[in-house]
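Design request, tokens follow.
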């Protein structure tokens, strides 16, 4: 394969860019192309609108709608599957039609989905709204993520520094949105859940307007694939599918911020009020430490080792809660294991996500980066759909307090064995 977007520099060339890669965050942003700045700002806005609603969805489904615990878990998993699981469709559409039309369609659907969710009062209506919200992201997220990944490789080839720095900055923007979003949502919930949903829709109205104005009709270097195919080759690539499965266990672990963590916070504090602060803690960590962590990992770890370290840190986060649960601590002391879980999960995420996204272009065929980026999330979505329903069932079985958390700890730890043992290409380094 000779995908120009998947060429990577030699180790010697990468070392010559390391000093330049140590720019401050603001200097790095200024050196980015206008398109990269737009895409990174888009990620910030996406997450502000999204996280103004999602952290409070489980509580709304259980109390206002009256869903059983297993059904709440299934709906949350369905939301993730309709988003992550259908990324492969969005990625194919991006390769076929380009970035701009797919992003605009996704924004339009997200506006409709949030408005629908705000007025949904039955389980069927909620499920319909959640499916629309998820599929909207299945359209615009592969478009944005694949183009950021392609531009990051171009950035690396032009000698500006490792591609993971751009992808780390993309993660920082997303987490900044994840920090602002729950705070905005908590304020809006003082009115009601519907107000939070409509505010989220309003954010996407602004995103839609911004892309109508600023997104170019054709992006230089982006090749549209007119012929069919690509899926068969992707499905035959066992190393890439193994990467997808390993990444899926991370996403399942991250999904516990919305399923297992709220139960733990409710038990320890008697309410879910501290949940927003734990989300804020995660986001602040990423915003202020993602780039230094990525720089540290780039100097010491290849892509596989970075993902391995991240998955093991995530597993240790679940183990911390499992070790503390038998003590039955409540109040501030009871929240400390949950805080430890959030910290370890977040640091693991900072290692896993940029490395996984940086790895995908090394597998993608010519013009198929959208498809491959979509497949990374689609396989993850399938894992989350099954895993979230199983987790909801597990949490409701009345097992000893530590058992569900130990099971959750085992999943990312075992996933380390799935990671490919060397990178495809010509000596990629990060």
């Amino acid at each position: 394969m000779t995908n120009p977007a998947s060429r990577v520099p030699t180790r010697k060339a990468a070392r010559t860019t390391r000093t330049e890669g140590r720019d401050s965050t603001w200097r790095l942003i200024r050196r980015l192309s206008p398109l990269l700045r737009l895409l990174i700002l888009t990620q910030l806005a996406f997450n502000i609108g999204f996280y103004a609603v999602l952290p409070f969805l489980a509580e709304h489904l259980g109390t206002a709608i009256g869903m059983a615990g297993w059904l709440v878990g299934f709906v949350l998993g369905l939301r993730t599957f309709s988003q992550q699981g259908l990324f492969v469709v969005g990625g194919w559409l991006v390769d076929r039609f380009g970035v701009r039309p797919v992003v605009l369609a996704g924004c339009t659907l997200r506006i409709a989905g949030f408005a629908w969710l705000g007025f949904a009062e039955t389980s069927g209506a909620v499920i319909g709204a959640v499916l629309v919200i998820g599929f909207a992201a299945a359209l615009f997220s592969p478009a944005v993520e694949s183009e950021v990944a392609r531009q990051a490789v171009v950035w690396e080839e032009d000698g500006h520094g490792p591609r993971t720095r751009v992808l780390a900055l993309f993660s920082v923007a997303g987490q900044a949105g994840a920090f602002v979003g729950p705070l905005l949502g908590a304020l809006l919930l003082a009115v009601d859940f519907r107000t939070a949903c409509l505010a989220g829709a309003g954010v996407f109205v602004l995103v839609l307007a911004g892309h109508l104005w600023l997104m170019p009709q054709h992006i230089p270097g982006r090749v549209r694939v007119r012929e069919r195919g690509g899926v068969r080759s992707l499905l035959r690539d066992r190393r890439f599918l193994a990467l997808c499965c390993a990444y899926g266990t991370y996403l399942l672990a991250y999904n516990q911020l919305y399923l297992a963590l709220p139960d733990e916070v409710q038990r320890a504090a008697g309410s879910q009020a501290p949940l927003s602060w734990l989300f804020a803690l995660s986001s602040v960590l990423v915003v202020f430490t993602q780039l230094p962590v990525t720089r540290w990992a780039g100097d010491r770890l290849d892509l596989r080792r970075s993902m391995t370290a991240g998955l093991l840190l995530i597993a240790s986060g679940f183990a911390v809660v499992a070790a503390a649960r038998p003590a039955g601590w409540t109040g501030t002391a009871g929240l400390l294991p949950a805080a430890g879980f959030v910290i370890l999960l977040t640091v693991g995420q900072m290692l896993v996500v940029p490395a996984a996204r940086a790895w995908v272009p090394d597998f993608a065929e010519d013009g198929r980066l959208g498809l491959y980026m979509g497949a990374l999330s689609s396989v993850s979505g399938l894992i989350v759909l099954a895993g979230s329903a199983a987790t909801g069932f597990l949490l409701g079985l009345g097992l000893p307090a530590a058992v569900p958390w130990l099971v959750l700890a085992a999943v990312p730890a075992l996933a380390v064995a799935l990671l490919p043992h060397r990178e495809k290409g010509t000596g990629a380094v990060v």
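Comment from the thread starter after seeing the answer: thanks! Residues 1-22, 423-430 have pLDDT under 50 and may be disordered.
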